[in-house]
Design a protein that fits this description.
- The protein has 452 residues and is an alpha/beta fold.
- It folds into three domains: 157 residues, Rossmann fold, CATH 3.40.50.2300; 142 residues, Response regulator (Rossmann fold, 3-Layer(aba) Sandwich); 104 residues, Homeodomain-like (Arc Repressor Mutant, subunit A, Orthogonal Bundle), CATH 1.10.10.
- The protein contains 18 helices and 13 strands.
- The longest helix has 19 residues.
- It is globular and about 75 Å long.
- The protein starts with 34 loop residues before the first helix and ends with a strand.
Length: 452
């Protein structure tokens, strides 16, 4: 197995990284029209009516919408004092004039348009933009650091041994171009070339359009030298790449590794195989946006212009959970094990189905993976046992049957030998562990960088 060359972990500094934040206007509100000014004039006579009325505009069809709302909710819970309406069907995008008819004090928007900005200026409403698009003049913006996203994906694929590396994105989306540039920048630091295959289509595809895109990606995949690693612009594009790989008969991840962006958990888990993804810190983005809106509604100057929030980590799932293996027979055997480990498959059955001598199978696994075929079967079973213990209330006997163990006693012994704990105690510890961030919020976000 080729040992991967160490790769620089930090991004090469961009010119904007050292540029001080632009001084924006305090907010979009006209003088004397902020929430604090109106309350000072005594327009509201009781405590409930005095709460600032905030509208949050998000599109609930995106899987990370809940994470952003959780970040906003966390700020609201910590500091209190808002009356919040969530427009999760994006009705204001189609009827922004409706904002003129409502007594809002501030807006957080993930579907920001020039028309919305104009309405807020006319109405004197503070607006915080959390859409991953070019900034509007005078509007504070919080969005992902897309170049850092590209770096993280490139590093992960390279460290897994893939040397034929590609980016599959969108020609007409600035955020996709930024992720592509970060991906290629990391590859230049390594000294490895990268190539791009991008299409112009975006969201809201009909089934026939989606099928056409998959066909185009499939035709591209047929031209690639294998094994190859592909970074998709986001999880939707990653799912299309996986569908195209299935169409042309490529084994994932042994011949083609695929990684998406945003960690849309439901869609990533529904993919076949499950899709690895770079997790953008949308929770923190929501918190920071709420903090900035609070400042604006209080009449304070904007603290930062555009803020880029770095990604947190890569969530590894089956689409990259392997090393690049150039031996197709070993790749085929590994694919069989990944599919059948929890059905109780034996090494002898793998030998028969992969049509490979037992000695060659053993040598190949130890060379490419550093472990035996039997150890790989147990590793996959162990992962699934942990998942079922954590996410379900299934009794141990049922978990044993679902993971390929005929006898629950043998599963218990194997689990304790590999983990050092019993399944029951592991489940209890997992249930008592914290399941939602707490973070040290909000002051010292080391991974947040202002950008010009």
């Amino acid at each position: 197995m080729i040992a991967p060359t160490p790769i620089p972990s930090a991004r090469a500094p961009r010119s904007s990284d050292s540029t001080p934040p632009i001084e924006f206007s305090p907010h979009l509100a006209a003088p004397g029209t902020t929430a604090s000014a109106r309350r000072a004039r005594g327009n509201r006579t009781n405590r409930a009516a005095a709460l600032p009325k905030v509208i949050v505009i998000v599109n609930s069809s995106f899987g990370d919408c809940d994470a952003m709302l959780s970040g906003i909710s966390r700020y609201h819970r910590d500091h209190g004092g808002w009356d919040v309406f969530v427009d999760d069907t994006v009705g204001t995008e189609f009827d922004p004039g409706w904002l003129m008819e409502q007594p809002w004090d501030g807006i957080i928007s993930r579907t920001t348009t020039q028309e919305l900005v104009n309405v807020c200026r006319k109405r004197g409403l503070p607006l915080i933009d959390v859409n991953d698009c070019p900034a509007f003049a005078g509007v504070p913006k919080f969005r992902p650091d897309n170049q850092a996203v590209g770096h993280m994906a490139a590093e992960d694929l390279y460290e897994r041994g893939y040397r034929n590396l590609y980016y599959c994105g969108y020609e007409n989306q600035d955020w996709s171009i930024e992720r592509r540039d970060g991906f290629f920048e990391a590859l230049r630091l390594i000294g490895t070339p990268g190539r791009e295959f991008s299409l112009p289509s975006g969201y809201g595809l009909r089934p026939a359009q989606n099928a056409s895109i998959i066909d185009q990606i499939a035709a591209w995949l047929r031209t690639l030298p294998l094994p190859a690693g592909v970074m998709a612009a986001h999880d939707l594009r990653g799912r299309q790449v996986l569908a195209a790989a299935h169409q042309v008969g490529l084994m994932v991840p042994e011949e083609l590794a695929v990684i998406g962006v945003n960690n849309d958990e439901v869609r990533c888990e529904l993919s076949v195989p499950t899709l690895s993804s770079v997790a953008t810190d949308i929770y923190r983005t929501g918190y920071l946006a709420a903090e900035e809106l609070s400042r604006c509604m209080a009449g304070q100057p904007v603290s930062r212009g555009e803020v880029l929030v770095e990604p947190t980590k890569i969530i590894t799932r089956n689409s990259t959970d392997s090393l690049a293996i150039e031996d197709r027979a070993i790749s085929a055997a590994l694919a069989i094990i990944r599919q059948e480990a929890c059905s109780g498959i034996s090494v002898e059955e793998v030998v028969r189905r992969a049509a490979i001598p037992r000695a060659r199978l053993e040598r190949g696994f130890r060379f490419f993976l550093g472990r035996s075929p039997q150890a790989e079967i147990r590793r996959i079973q162990l992962f699934r046992i942990k998942q079922l213990l954590t996410e379900t209330d299934f009794p141990l006997k049922q978990i044993a049957l679902l993971t390929g163990f005929e006898h629950v006693e043998y599963m218990n012994v194997s689990f304790k030998r590999m983990v050092g704990d019993t399944p029951g105690r592991f489940r209890r510890n997992a249930r008592t562990a914290p399941i939602s961030p707490p973070r040290s919020l909000p002051s010292d976000f080391a991974s947040v960088s202002p950008a010009a």
